[in-house]
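User: Hey, quick favor. My workstation is busy. Could you predict this chain's structure for me?
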Amino acid sequence: MKKLAQLLERLEYECLSGSMDVRVNDIVYDSRKVTDGDLFVCIRGTQVDGHTFVSEVVEKGAAVLLVEERVSVPDGVTVIRVPDTRYAMAVISAAYFDYPAERMQIIGITGTKGKTTTTYMVKSILESAGYQVGLIGTIETIIGDVHIPASHTTPESYCIQEYFSKMAAAGCEMVVMEVSSQGLKMHRTAGIVFELGIFTNMEPDHIGPGEHENFEEYMQCKGMLFRQCRKGIVNIDDRHWETVLAGHTCSLETYGFSENADFRASDTALVTRPGYLGIAYRVTGKMNFDVEIDIPGKFSVYNSLTAIAICSHFEVPVEKIQAALKTAKVKGRVEMVPVSDQFTLMIDYAHNAMALESLLSTLREYQPHRLVCVFGCGGNRSKYRRFEMGEVSGKMADFTIITSDNPRFEKPLDIIADIRVGIDRTDGKYIAIPDRKEAIRYAIRHGEPGDIIILAGKGHEDYQEIEGKKYPMDERVLISEILKEEQNVR
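Assistant: No problem, here it is.
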């Protein structure tokens, strides 16, 4: 339990009623989870306003309410008003867990693409140098040997502080985390002083109801990170970087292919071996050495160069960086799965047209015999995404296998019909196989020497969502089963 005054020590607030001499059992923002002695945060969400649950949470025993407006409560309930309850929740959550971020060095990475891969690269490099590193991101949170599946790229502020507390207790010296624009907009990272803040790139995304009003707001939200970090590391090649960094309060370093970059990539070369794709380049500027990565594409150069720039601040020897980057793997991000020496098979999370186009154009640079794309689209989502993804695959792949993704409450055949609308706008060859395992089996059976086969859309997911229920389905497991079954047939 914590004294209320201790939780509020870094906030401006007004006590509207009740006593400040009260102890708080826990901080809760979900009215269903309130118990006796809790502090309930009234958050205005896109769908629900927490202020409407005041009577309910008081009945459940909430001792303190954190509000933005006056509310009616019985005597004995303390009401604290603040300008923004989301911001206040972040600050009091840090206080509740005794400011764990101040006992570690926090590295925050923001940008449209590259956040997930870069966080894993940084973790791999720093751990190779002997550091204990926690991770928070799109796929999972990692605390020592514990892996917690993620529901948001950047969790709610209370959850972040709880994770930080556990990481500090587990001996973590630093944390590398993805910082989404939504997370910044909703003040989930408020009160955290980041040792390093990183900007990867900027493309129109996450714009629409419940997300960002427009591209300008999207950029402004990304830029918030650079008013709460000590040093910013930015991609100087991105044309939006100066707009995103407007008003920054940190010192800056840059990376990219530009001759003006502090960490510069040059002499890139594609690496191709049977069943393997990678890329090599040279780092110049503040560091000078050669790098080879087991992940294909120019974007892999950017991701690894970002990781190098970050890790340069922690005195990691060059040979440790080189070795760690050679083995760094990210589940579901251009993840190669050994299947055959004749062709290359990989899994990727690309689940919209922009990501799929970027992925296929990257793989096309390796001049495959055929580029084969296996994908589906999620149910209860925009039909336009299906049309667009169908059109992209039809134009850029030599052969497409349309299959099922997460149909949710729609019929897989209806989703496939929508994808076909897009692919029929092109001359692309395709086949539709609704069962995803059978679609993968078809791709493997018909793989030709020199092919690159990409399974797109599911990535790190290990389930398939059908009519409100998640069924186990991991593409790595499916591939393993298929290979055993095919061997038995022979």
